[in-house]
Each structure stands twice: as C-alpha cells, then as structure tokens.
C-alpha cells in the first residue's frame, strides 16, 4: 500500500522495509543527505560515533557531493563520523575505478574528517589478504559491541540485482562467518572486496539508492519476484536489527505496481 507522505515522495511501509519514491534524482539525493545528517547527529550525540559503509558506483555520487556542501556538511560532526566502504575494486586507491578515490575527490577533500576516521578497503594488495585485514579492522572497531554492526550501510543496485560486490551465483553469497571476502566474478571488470550479509544485515539502518530507468526492470524483480538471493543478491539484504529504506526515483520505480 503506497501512502502519500509528502508532495515530494510517496512511502510504502511493511514490516521489512520502507520504500520512498521521489519525483527525480536530485530529490532522492537530498533526502538521503538529510537522512545522513539525522542519523549521524543522533548517533554522535548518543555514543560519540557514527559508522557508515559507503556504496560505490555512480548513484551515490550526488549524495556525497551534497554532503560536501556547506548546507549539509556544517550540520555533521565529522570528528565522530567513521567512513568505511561496502566494497572496493582491487585496484590502487589512485585508480579511476577506485570507490575510495571517488569518495576522496567528491567528499574527503572538502570536509574536516580526521584521517584515522577514514577506513579504506585495501584494494591494492592481494585480495585474500586485503579481505582478512579489513575483516580484522571491523572486528577491532566494533569490539565490545557484539557482532560488528554499522549505524548506516548505503547500497546501490546493479542491473543484475547485485549489491555491494555480492554478485549472482557467487560463493560470497553463502558466507556466514567472514565480514569481508574477496570476490572474483565474471560480472565485474576487476576482482573486488565486499562486505558480506552477516555484517550488512546487522546494520541499524540500510539505505538502498536506486535511480534511472535502466533500473526499473531489476527493481520490479526485486519487489515482485519470489525472494532468491542467489539470483538477486539484493534479496539477501535484511535489516534484522533495524530499518531498511529504498530511496527510488520515479524512473526507476516505473514498473512497480501497488507495493
Ligand atoms: C560498485 C558498487 C555496486 C553499485 C552497483 C550500482 O562498486 O560498483 O558498490 O554495487 O552500487 O553496481 O552501480 P551504479 O550506482 O553505478 O548504477
């Protein structure tokens, strides 16, 4: 059931997730920036820190650009924000395809965040070694809090239903213990490192950002096909301890019937 919440967006709620459909990509990205401000300020007020796993790819770029603007960045207590990555291509951080480089250019160079708060995935080293190093970094960062759990995980959605670097029919989908694994997939140009479901699904808030008509078909499968995370890895994402939001623009949501 889609309820009209505000003239900017419509929201559908069920026990698993909230879907917000925005008229266009800028409206989607601005709402995501407002949610980032809300969650980060509340978390830092409560526990002096806010841990977020950033998505790669192109969709979140606009969000990161907005967070670098005075109207948003001046509301965020950056000294308490800890930036992680949901996945990374196995390339040096200076490589054009690096998710770290994308965030560095758009956001890190424009906000006052302590360097120790930037937890870059080591994509430049042997993938198995890089996965183990980052896995250990998560365990140390979240030590004493039970299972590692991010305050926010931002995710995109590939046209094949992948999210982070969890690709269809890939062994990484079956990982139940490790929080970070190397991924070698024919779907990807580079080997990858990715967070796995065990750590993604523990997040307090999971936010999917999906925009553009090229995502309409996969979104209709995500919402209207029987759940099968082997075929559609996004189906394996469940906010077991928190909230899951889908922020869509109207073009991406074009094939969604009444939710
Ligand atoms: C990556 C991302 C990946 C991305 C989807 C959607 O490293 O590429 O983590 O999962 O979110 O492929 O990418 P777009 O936002 O570019 O459509």
Judged by helices, strands and strand pairing, the structural class is alpha/beta
Side-by-side strand order of the widest sheet: 1-2-3-11-10-7-4-5
| Biggest pleated sheet | 8 strands, mixed
Q: So how many helices?
A: 7
- β content, as a range? 15-25%
| Backbone shape | globular
Average predicted confidence as pLDDT: 94
Number of strands: 11
Tell me the distance between the termini.
5 Å
Order of helices and strands: EEEHEHHEEHHEEEHEHE
DSSP helix fraction: 25-40%
User: Radius of gyration over alpha carbons?
Assistant: 17 Å
Low-confidence stretches: 1-7
Bound molecules: 6-phosphogluconic acid
SSE topology sketch:
Blueprint: E1 2-6, E2 9-13, E3 18-22, H1 25-47, E4 50-54, H2 61-67, H3 70-73, E5 81-85, E6 87-89, H4 99-106, H5 127-141, E7 152-155, E8 180-183, E9 192-195, H6 197-200, E10 205-210, H7 216-224, E11 243-249
Parallel strand pairs: 3-11, 4-5, 4-7, 7-10, 10-11
Antiparallel strand pairs: 1-2, 2-3, 6-9, 8-9
Helix pairs in contact: 1-2
The chain binds 6-phosphogluconic acid.
């Amino acid at each position: 059931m889609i309820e009209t919440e505000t003239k900017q967006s419509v929201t559908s709620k069920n026990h698993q997730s909230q879907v917000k459909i925005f008229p266009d990509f800028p409206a989607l990205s601005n709402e995501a920036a407002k949610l980032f401000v809300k969650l980060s300020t509340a978390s830092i007020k409560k526990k002096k820190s806010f841990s977020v796993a950033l998505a790669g790819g192109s969709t979140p770029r606009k969000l990161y650009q907005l967070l670098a603007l005075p109207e948003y960045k001046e509301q965020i207590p950056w000294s308490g924000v800890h930036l992680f990555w949901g996945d990374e291509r196995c390339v040096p951080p200076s490589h054009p395809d690096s998710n770290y480089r994308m965030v560095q250019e758009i956001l890190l160079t424009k906000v006052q965040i302590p360097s120790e708060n930037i937890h870059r995935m080591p994509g430049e080293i042997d993938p198995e070694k890089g996965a183990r190093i980052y896995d250990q970094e998560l365990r140390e960062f979240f030590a004493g809090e039970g299972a590692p759990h991010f305050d926010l995980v931002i995710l995109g959605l590939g046209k094949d239903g992948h999210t982070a670097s969890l690709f269809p029919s890939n062994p990484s989908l079956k990982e139940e213990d490790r929080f970070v694994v190397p991924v070698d997939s024919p779907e990807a140009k580079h080997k990858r490192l990715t967070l796995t479901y065990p750590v993604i699904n523990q997040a307090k808030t999971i936010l999917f950002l999906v925009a553009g008509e090229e995502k309409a078909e996969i979104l209709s499968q995500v919402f209207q096909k029987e759940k099968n995370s082997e075929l559609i890895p996004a189906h394996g994402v469940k906010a077991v301890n928190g909230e899951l939001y889908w922020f869509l623009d109207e073009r991406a949501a074009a094939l969604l019937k009444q939710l």
